[in-house]
Amino acid sequence: MTPGMSRKRGVPLRGGGLVWGLLASVALCGIVGCGNAATESAGTGRATGDTGSAQSPGTPFVYGGPTEVHSRNCTAAQLAARLPPIVYRPSSLSTGQKVPLVIGLHGAFGSPQSMQGISHFEELANHYGFVVLYPGSCDDAHPWGPPQDFTYLKSLIPQIIASQNIDASRVYVAGYSAGGYATWLTGCRLSGTVAAIAIVSGAMNGRLYTSCSPVKPVSELLMVGTADGTRYTGIPGRLPSPFQTTARWRALDGCTATPMTATALLPVVAQQSWSACIDGSAVSLVLVQGAQHGWPPYANGAPPSYRASLTVWAFLSAHTAAPLSLTTSDARLLSLKATSGGGRTKFSARLRVSEPLTIVATLGSSRRPRRTIYLTRLGQRTVTVSWSLAVGPRSSYRVVLTLRDSYGRTRRITRSVSAG
Which H helix or E strand runs over 183? Predict the structure, then answer.
């Protein structure tokens, strides 16, 4: 349940559908893509008053346009004028105490101060005990697009982790509007550092949508108002809708379709979450019915009592960074058997897995090792790898199982087994 919300307002709804009252059913239309939203003037992100249907979750997104992100370098003058970051550490936190880090990224024509002013993360930091970092872009009009901005973030984050004694497994990024692009970018390209990301009133760049390739799972939350123009409707071939972005991130995190939980945070705020994902990661979509562009409650049409930062922190804080290599929780050998007869030896390895894996079985004791490749499926939890070789009985065989997942993480299991 989101901190600060009453238990009555955070009632989980069971099953694949959402069965609410009249107002909640309006929010449901946003979840399944049946609602309308105000469209945007090109390049402004502002509602024009026209309505348009969002691309549905079942509509695949195929990138077919140029990059939507301004990628020209900042000038020397712009770099020199970059505002210093705001770092907030509650006075109640001992410097010897390792704590989480929340990085807040501002939108266009914003600043570290403006992001501080709409998110108020420092208030939550005082209560929950974490450090807040508000960095600034070198380009006010096109924040986080210039390559120097990513280089800046990439070098700044380790500095803050070291200077503020941050728990490296709990580094989070939250971005607003154009800051959402940089947030997704860190999730894709700094996935080895970031545990979870949250985006409010943003749309994933179509090029990044296609190229994103994290080295481990990163939990992701996306919050959008249903009147937030093309951030809600998407642009076919250029800008994925929030439903398509959520589906993409579910695929990146290896989430199964079920279980899915649906929660009414408020009568007009609906949240869907998928938690059966790799290494405890999760993906969540929050729709604010009727809200235009902004960080609730500072968005026209958003409930004045709804604080997006509470939902963001509740999601981020529930996650720690996934390991950079496979562990026993990802794959564990349950049994290994060898049976000889008729000049051949049959091997059988039984494993418990938590995600799809490529398993390469090698007989290490043979002069000419033979290999068997086995692919597990999403949702498969127990697998048996069997292979037969033209080798006679021996006192023991050395079997090597090399495991690899979709992120490129590996683990090697070596065991000796006697033929029965």
Answer: helix 178-189
